[in-house]
Structure formats: C-alpha cells, structure tokens
Design brief:
12 helices; 5 strands; about 55% helix
C-alpha cells in the first residue's frame, strides 16, 4: 500500500477561506473528545452512519487557512469557524469550544468519548508531544510557508488555552494536561443535559451510538484506526510532504541566489 493510499488526508491541499462560507447543512452531532481519544475512529464511524463530512483536526492540515480562523477564535473565545458543510465535529479544535458549540447548535446530540486520563496523557506524550518537539519543525517553520507557518502557532495557542503555558518539569506538565482534560469533560457534563449526551468508550462498539442517534447497527465492524504505530507512520509521511513542499517553495530563491553568486564570480 502506498503512502497516498494509507494516509490520503495528508495528500489533500486546499485553500478555502471559511470566512466566506455559510452553513448549508444542519449540525447533527458534537463529539467531545480530546486528541488521542479515538477521534479518527469516531469520524470514520459517523461517516459510515451518513454524517458526511465530519470535521476533524485533519481538516486544518488539508486546509491550513482554517488555522488562522481557529486561532482567532481561541484568542477571542468566540466561535468564528465551524465549516458549514459538516454534519458533525470531532476532536480538536472543536472540543475546545464546548459552551460555544452547544449554544450555537442546541439541538445537536453530544457524544463524550471517555478514556482513562493517565493512559490518555501517556499516549499524547508518545505521539503528539514528541512530534511537536521535533527540531526539524523549527527549520520547516521558515521553509514551509503554506502549512507549518500557520499550523504551528495555531497548535501552540490551542495547547496553551487547554493545558496552560508549556513547562519543562515533566511532572507539572502531566498535571496540567490531565487537569485540562478533566476540566473539559466536567464542563460538557455541566452544560449538556443527560438525555442529550452519550458517555461512550470505543470498546463499546456500534450499539450505544446507533441507539443514541437512531440508526441501525451496521454489519461492518466498528472502526479502530490511528493507533500509536499508525500515528508515527503518518507523521513520517506528513514530514516528508512538508520537506517536499518546502523544497518546491524555496527552489526559485535558491536558484536565484546561485545565479547571482555565479554572475558575481564570473564578472567580479
């Protein structure tokens, strides 16, 4: 299987200004789940049930222009970017806007993905936090002007809003992240009434979700995707794409610099 076949999301490049978009379908489902709680599996499950296009963090990777809007929303704590073609949302950044989403879409059903906080943090540490600390991202920040220069500040802002300012002390970092995780889930339980909310773990499979949303149980198995090994493989593909894009973006500058140097050497 090729990289494109295995990770198709990382080969999509869009440049859509969501400021110009309007809601064209009703928002049906709000999935409140932090990163590394099985949100890609939930996205696949909802789309299997007919909730086409379910917004996920991967949408910001495909369309980095969204990063600017979500960052503005985080700073102002005003929901200014929720793509109007989406029937449902999962993962971050949407999960950082629990009160705003519920106020904007009061009839939407809410699914809360549960995962043990300690296991959740360990997964984040092995995957997302390791990726965010890669030295090559600092280089790519100056070279990949299409993606990294927009995605990196957005992620910094997102993590600061949810988990506080980054600290070097690993014990304090763990405490901050788990506190932010628990606070987010406490907030949704406080705001959303029990009859409109489903507490769900991925190992429960189709039955609770289908009963809650009013669907028949599909004959296919419940999707389970993006484990740690798959995440790492996907990050390697994403990094490769960044370097290729950076090379294309900067090739004219490099060639122009070489041409000027050659001209100076020949004429000088």
């Amino acid at each position: 299987m090729t990289d494109r076949e295995r990770f198709p999301d990382y080969f999509v490049e869009k440049n859509i200004d969501r400021r110009q978009c309007r809601r064209v379908v009703s928002m049906k489902v709000l999935v409140i789940g932090m990163l590394r709680t099985g949100t890609l599996s939930m996205q696949a499950a909802l789309e299997d049930l007919g909730y086409h296009s379910t917004h996920h963090m991967h949408h910001t990777i495909q369309n980095p222009a969204e990063c600017l809007l979500w960052k503005e929303a985080l700073e102002a704590k005003i929901l200014v970017c929720c793509p109007g073609h989406c029937w449902a949302v999962v993962d971050l950044p949407a999960a950082a806007f629990i009160p705003e989403l519920h106020a904007a879409y009061p009839d939407a059903m809410v699914i809360v993905i549960q995962r043990d906080p300690e296991q959740w943090y360990d997964s984040c540490y092995r995957t997302v936090m390791r990726f965010a600390s890669l030295p090559q991202l600092k280089v790519l920040y100056f070279l990949d002007r299409w993606f990294v220069v927009r995605f990196a500040p957005f992620m910094d802002c997102l993590f600061t809003c949810l988990f506080g300012t980054a600290v070097k002390d690993p014990v304090k970092m763990r405490e901050n992240w788990i506190r932010g995780y628990l606070n987010a889930y406490d907030e949704v339980r406080r705001i959303v009434p029990p009859e409109q909310r489903l507490e769900f773990s991925l190992n429960q499979g189709w039955e609770p979700i289908c009963k809650f949303l009013g669907h028949e149980v599909p004959k296919k198995p419940f999707p389970h995707v993006n484990d740690s090994a798959t995440f790492d493989a996907g990050i390697n593909v994403l990094l490769k794409r960044m370097w290729i894009r950076a090379a294309k973006q900067n090739l004219p500058f490099v060639l122009g610099t070489l041409a000027m140097a050659m001209a100076w050497w020949i004429c000088g």
